[in-house]
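User: I'll paste a sequence; please echo it back and then give the predicted structure.

Assistant: Echoing your sequence first, then the prediction.
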Amino acid sequence: MNDTTSKTSENGSGNGFCGKILNVDLSSGTPEYESLEESFYKKYLSGVGLGVKVLWDRIKPGIDPLGPENILGFSTGLLTDTNSLFTGRFMVVGKSPQTGGWGDSNCGGNFSPALKRCGVDAIFFYGASEKPVYVYMDENTIEINDASELWGQDAIETENILKEKHGKRAQVMCIGPAGEKLSLLAGISTDGGRLAGRSGLGSVMGSKKLKAVVVAGKQKAGVFDKDQMAELTKAYRSRLQLDKEPKLSDKMLGFGGKMQRILPFGVRTKGGMVRDLFRQFGTSGTTALSAESGDSPIKNWGGIGCKDFPLERSQKIGAETVIKYQVKKYGCFSCPIRCGGIMEIKEGPYPISEMHKPEYETLCSFGSLLLNDDIFSIFKINDMVNRGGIDSISCGATVAFAIECFENNIITEADTGGLKLAWGNSAAIIKLTEMIINREGIGDTLADGVKRAAEKIGKGATEYAVHCGGVEPGMHDPKFDNGQAISYYCDATPGRHTTAANLYLEIQELEKKYSRAKKVPSFITRKEKRRCDNKAEGIAVNIFFKMLMDGAGICLFGTQVGGEMPIAEWLNAATGWELSDDDYLVIGERINQLRHAFNIREGINPIKDFKPHPRVYGDPPQEKGPFKKLTLDIDMLAESYYDTMNWDVTTGKANKNYLERLDLKEVIDGIYPESKA
């Protein structure tokens, strides 16, 4: 065993964490519990911190992400199931087959508390089974069961079968056909359509022949100070003002997007407005707003929203159009906002009895990005990608790439099997999506994303392959918010839209709690978002905060709805620690440095290997629209960020003294081998 283990520590029940993880060797069919010291959690929390530390210690550099040597982990948040709010998130971690480096994906639903109630903070899968299996566990039982009859079933069918077999308490994470067929766009599904979609980790699960993980625990971890936790949560809930009904409209949101585009000054985004938007519409409420403001990428990142996909089109796939088909609201565990929804589509060509409401990322990637305003086709595709277990961001971006290749005669009907690809051709978009999910025809070439497809196709296809280090970027244009240019380019998981942004820094008002955040502007104006100066420090703080959230199991949206979330106070009430806000931010900083070091050890330096496609930063600049003649100085942004992070631009390695201050001796030994001598 290595330094993540303890042979003598007892179960940490009563301190927010369980103090145990479960390791399952799928090659031998052997499960083994492992205890962790309290000091481990105080250094890394749980969630992504626990995941990256275990994988750093146990994955050898250079292994094949789709080989048995990779480790796939599901790690709950430290605050999950502690009576705090917005804390039902968990992390899936592993070596990413998309980048060859660090991979993680964040997910909600109800899986996280069910896993934690099994008496473990995480479960890690080693090796690979020779035949399809699924793992069942509760607080007393661990079973590795044959899944041959489930192999080939879609993700929702699989979940329904396993819940019927194992009872109402059971929660399921599973792969669909995309994961089984090792598509590098595959994610892992839970709750009938919540997806851990990024980093291609569904293909890792498929490579291990692991169809599903079923958890049905009922043993709460408990907290150190139950009364204090209850008081904190009650006061926070009151500050959220959930008794007031939101009264927004799609027209109002679209007009707001237009104002963001044309006003010469900024309008600070308030948490109260975000709260109302999410409560009323969910993330679909931002569709028209984002297209009109310039936030949404259009026509494979080559178009202009207000010109190519104007308000009268974006509203066809926007908030009020979507909400018309919602039959009930849906919320993840411990969420009072409930931004999700369950849909029933009775009209149109593709009736659907039940599905999750499409999120903004899906509405944009299969709408604005493709110039597709056919809402019924997007409903159909939303159900398809949920069932197929495939990331809608990457899948939609891959369809956009294919359409532009077809438009430029790089691929033809002979390649597509007679399919005529064109912008807004919803029938062809549906068919191509199906082919990608099932790896049929040209879908086999496209199923691993635009970078690999362009390499296979040749003929100049790389010109239209928009990606960051092999990962298709999220549906937010960094020219609208250049803070995302840094996270797309320099984060350990490139192209990630949820990691950091100037907008997040603004809404979260981090300057109120974190001394380091007080050094950066508390309000970023519209023009400043487009400039490239003085941004790195704020984005660094935002990323450290995101790692803190991912270690605690907190939803990103929960930090954006106002109310001054008592994160440090919750963590202290749960654990009995007496750490400050700044102490916890340092834990987030430590986690982020370990994620980055994982890539460096793999020979990946983001500033060299993750540079975004030129369209992402405006090269060449657009001739019209809100980003007219704008090209971000992406290299200066990255170099400034590296300096803030204490990373060497040439090697990517963090400064030794800095790593010592963060108590990361294992990183020094890992990336400076000479230090072991």
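The two ends are 22 Å apart (CA to CA). Confidence is low (pLDDT under 50) at residues 1-12.
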